[in-house]
Amino acid sequence: MIVGILKVTFRLHGIFSLKEKRKISSSLKQKLRNKYNISIAEVENQDSTDFLTIGVSTLSNEMRQTESILSKVKDSIEAMTSEEIVEINTDFFGY
Q: How far apart are CA 23 and CA 93, in angstroms?
């Protein structure tokens, strides 16, 4: 069993309220949930209007499949948003 985790941090420009930030976050999370079989949540910077950090996780029997899913999610995130991506981290754990 392989668990894959993707963490993406965005720098938000022109966002002045947490309500605006949540709108961006919710839209992105819902689109990704609908397209891929993943778990996704806002994991850091919840009270910041300057940064948004989301975490994505997936589980598979094969490393190749886990890497493929996270790679597709990463590509979709880059295509779906115009926000500046400042950091992307990927980790894998085998059990």
A: 31
| Domain 2-94 superfamily per CATH | TT1725-like (3.30.70.1120)
Alpha-carbon Rg for the chain, nearest whole angstrom, is 13
Q: What are 75-94's pLDDT values in tens digits? A: 999 998 888 999 999 999 99
Token digits of residue 94: 């085998």
CA 11 to CA 67: how far, in whole Å?
Answer: 25
State the pTM of this model.
0.89
Q: 68 vs 17, 25, 34, 49, 51, CA distance in Å?
A: 35, 23, 17, 31, 27
Q: Which amino acid would we find at residue 30? A: Q
Percentages of the chain per state (helix, strand, coil), in multiples of 5: 40, 40, 25
| Residue that is written with structure tokens 């880059």 in the block | 78
Instruction: Choose among 78, 58, 54, 77: nearest CA to 68.
Output: 58
Domain parsing of the chain, residue ranges: 2-94
